[in-house]
Amino acid sequence: MRPDQWVAGDYADRMAVTPPGGALPPPPTAPAVPPGSPAPRMPLRRLGWRRFLALAGVVLLIAAGAVFMVFTLGESLGAEALLVGVIAAILPVPVLVSCFLWLDRYEPEPLKYLIFCFAWGAFVSTAISLLVNETGARLFDDWGLPAALTAVLVAPFIEELTKAAGPLLLLIFRRREFSGVTDGLVYCGLSAVGFAMVENILYLGGYGYRTGVEEYGPATGARQVIAIFIVRILLFGFAHPLFTSMTGVGLGVAARTADRRVRFLAPIAGLLLAMMLHGTWNLLPSLAAATGQPLIALYGYIGVMVPIFFGMVGLAVWLRAWEGRLTERTLPDYVRAGWLTPPEVAALGSLGRRHAARTWARRVAGDGGVRAMRGYQFAATRLALLRDGMRRGLDRKPAERDRTAREERELLDAIGAYRAFFVGRDPQTPVGVWDGQRYHLRFPDGSQRPVEAPDEPVVPIPVVLAPPPPPAFPPGYGPAGWHGGPRPAAPWPPA
């Protein structure tokens, strides 16, 4: 999909910075959606028998893990201790989940995949890890070795492997839902939060409440629950998400590279790093107990784990902003082709600008305008990620390139319909047309003349798009059987 002419050194070129990666994809076709058309829905996948069987298998596996964990914890803790542990362990979950959802605000992932990762960590990972850890503890006991070695030599490997298995399945079977390292952090983080929640039930309900009640009574049990809650959740509640985030980085890198070696090695490297951090974390209290020097654990946590934690927080915040800046680097391709105007691209570069655009949309079009602006922003972010993947050469097979071209067209159609909702709505906005290079404005005296775009576009208000030249398709690109044409000339909005 390529317009007849491509202008170099224009306004969009000054906005864009092309990242390194694969060969540049062909420029997008100019719009062919008439103003006022309804927003098209993305086509839904058919639920074939293979997908149905895979979905049923995953649901049954998670359900089996949940039943196993409820039965095991209930039998070992008792009903009262289990209830106390569940209530105390659930309290930090909304805060931790909100932190990961905050990272994912530019391009929120489907809720079903977020729930899947959380449930996988909470039930499947904990069930498998519990069985393997208990088996390892029995083997060490038979060999005359300390059972504490299980926490250092067995638990880090099986727990990190099983926590990462759910997000890894998403990467393999739903690669298009993995748009980068941010998604890897979110998916793996939620899996770790689910795992930590169930593990905390065991610590709070068993080692805390039940042990205290058996020794000195309910008051002691309550005090021990509070003490474990402060140490294990308030002070070190970041541990499991921190470990598994290393795997998330590896999965995110693999999702955004065309190099097969990196796709294979990056997740392995992230998983190994997660296992080493987890093993070090468990080793510190074991060393402190074996040597009688509790400062070993304190110095290890403060000197090693805390800096790594803040480093990961800084990386996550930077990646969150990177996803917004990606639109400013990628979408100028569509500015040149006449799909978007410079202010629209500039308005997508940060959450503050996006909020300002939604505020303007509410002022000129009410609640419906806010919904349309949100849909527009989501589709534009998806389009930027898709275009970035085209630049990086993520699609190697012709079928994958055709699918990407179809998805690009669907997103462009949706963007055209969303933006048509706003054109001409604001009486305070100058009436004008954007032709891909400059504005053509109508002035109060009825005259029309071209105006160069400002160096810093800040007004997130769309104008009418000029009719583009007919597209020319490069060989091997674009969905088979699709023949785009120039969009009908857009009428001037009423003065």
End-to-end Cα distance: 34 Å
Number of helices: 15
**What portion of residues is helical?**
55-70%
Mean pLDDT: 79
Give the quaternary arrangement of the chains: single chain
Using the alpha-carbon principal axes, give the shape: elongated
Number of DSSP-assigned strands = 6
Order of helices and strands: EHHHHHHHHHHHHHHHEEEEE
Rg from alpha-carbon coordinates: 27 Å
Strand order of the largest sheet: 4-3-2-5
Beta-strand proportion: under 5%
Low-confidence stretches: 1-25, 27-43, 468-495
Q: What does the main sheet amount to?
A: 4 strands, mixed
Coarse structural class: mainly alpha
Description:
- The chain has 495 residues and is mainly α.
- Helices cover 66% and strands 4% of the residues.
- It contains 15 helices and 6 strands.
- The strands form 2 sheets. The protein has a 4-stranded mixed beta sheet with strand order 4-3-2-5, with no helix packed on it. A two-stranded antiparallel ribbon has the order 1-6.
- The radius of gyration is 27 Å and the shape is elongated.
Provide keyphrases for this structure.
single chain, 495 residues, mainly alpha, four-stranded mixed sheet, two-stranded antiparallel ribbon, 15 helices
Structure, briefly:
Helices cover 66% and strands 4% of the residues. It is mostly helical and 495 residues long.
